Amino acid sequence: MFRSFRHAVLEPSLMKILMGLGSRLPRRTGWAAAGPAGVLAAGIPGRSNRFMSRNIRLVAEPMGLSVKPARVYRHMVGGILDFLHLSSRDDDLFRRVVRVEGEEHLAGVMAQGRGAVVVTAHYSAWELIPRAVTLMGHRVGIVGRQLWNPRVSLELDRLRSRFGVETIDRGRGAAKLLRALRNNTAVGILIDQETKAVAGDFVPFLGTPALTPTGPASICLRFGVPAVTLHIRRIGMEYLLKVDPPVDLRAFRGAGGVEALTGVFNGRIGEWIVEEPEQWIWFHDRWGRSPRFRAVVR
User: What average pLDDT does this structure show over 124-152?
Assistant: First the structure.
């Protein structure tokens, strides 16, 4: 009974409260509030914090990366509040908050008229990326799955669609995704979480094999769709969206190309994390099914 109440009433109500706070709070106040919220979240026992502790101990620390759980949560909460705040603000303010570097890289591949597979990660305020790309003048779609609560998921999709962003459900096959690419859409795909519902392979990620979706690489190589990686990171009270040069797909033709290209995607995401490790979400079970990781845990 409580679970039904939580899904039908509690979670949607909390979402509306958060949206109201995010839209009304000054951004500096929201960032200040994200600090105590991060400390609180880091102290709550549960699966997420067990995963975070394990990932830091077995992956981050051997790489010499300093990761404080409270700061990881602070960046996440601050990013969510900024997304909600800016969703109710005009484009001029958005452009002042979110700067873009490397815009020409995406413009170049979109000029080919075949769309683009845009690979990114759950890093910093990733929900700001789609609107930033629409403001570059491109049609945008994002591939994702419905959240645990359909009503919360619907509200999030409504916020995204306000700026012309199309949501593509990854659980309903590739037809809608391919149709979007044929319409010259920049299709964003996040590949930094283990996803059981799609095809994947164990590919090195921060030095440890991790089950990674291979669909983006497969689409690029099979249909000749350009591949671009990009990410957004927080710098003070602003964000920098950096678009990388497109990947030269000619180097990945033939056997093993899909796995090799997926490795390039993982490598670029890893570089972003090394640069600012606390802006990535360490609290999910990224390496949970990796044979090497499981052997170490045991």
Answer: 86
Distance (Å) of CA 131 to CA 65, 86, 116: 31, 10, 16
Q: How far apart are CA 190 and CA 242, in angstroms?
A: 15
Spatial distance between the Cα atoms of 195 and 31, rounded to a whole number of angstroms: 31
**Residue (of 45, 166, 109, 120) closest to 280 by Cα position:** 120
Neighbouring-strand partners of residue 242: 101, 231
Top-confidence residue, 290 or 222: 222
Cα distance between the two ends of the chain: 37
Residues of the domain holding 64: 2-297
Number of domains comprising the chain: 1
Closest by CA to 118, choosing from 282, 229, 253, is 229
Largest CA distance in the chain: 56
pTM of the shown model: 0.91
